Amino acid sequence: MPVELVRAAALTDEVPYAYGAIARGLLFTAGACPLDAGGEVAHVGDVAAQAALVMDNLVEALTAAGCGLSDVVKSTVYVASADREDLVSAWHVVRERFGEHDAPSTLLGVAALGFEGQLVEVEAVAVLP
């Protein structure tokens, strides 16, 4: 099932994502966390390194359901920081991993995330193939 990314002519095209996505047969992922194979938070204090591991873990969750990043119709990126530079650092890693597939996404700075030392989490909605 293909993902149809929606562009809105009345809204600016100066954002690095589509404004909406249309799909049926959806997968909703839990938030991917920067946990290593042993279940420990990795790269404590390093937003970009945590974001990279989070994206690796998100890809694994999508793969387990038969999906990939190109099947994502919406993502949400959470960064435990009030510093805009931290948010942008995480965002650059996430956007790079999605490549040309610029599905809608929301980037949020939050007070805290679930694991001690966790700075980044990404959840996604994907269309099942």
TrEMBL record:
Q: Name one GO molecular function term.
A: deaminase activity
Pfam families the record matches: Ribonuc_L-PSP
List, alphabetically, the GO terms of the cellular component aspect.
Answer: cytosol
Checking InterPro entries in the record gives:
RutC-like_sf (IPR035959), YjgF/YER057c/UK114 (IPR006175)
Q: Top-down, what is the taxonomic lineage of the species of origin?
A: Bacteria, Bacillati, Actinomycetota, Actinomycetes, Propionibacteriales
Q: Which protein are we looking at?
A: RidA family protein
Source species of the chain: Nocardioides anomalus
By its UniProt entry, which Gene3D superfamilies does this protein fall under?
RutC-like
Regarding protein family, the annotation reads: Belongs to the RutC family.
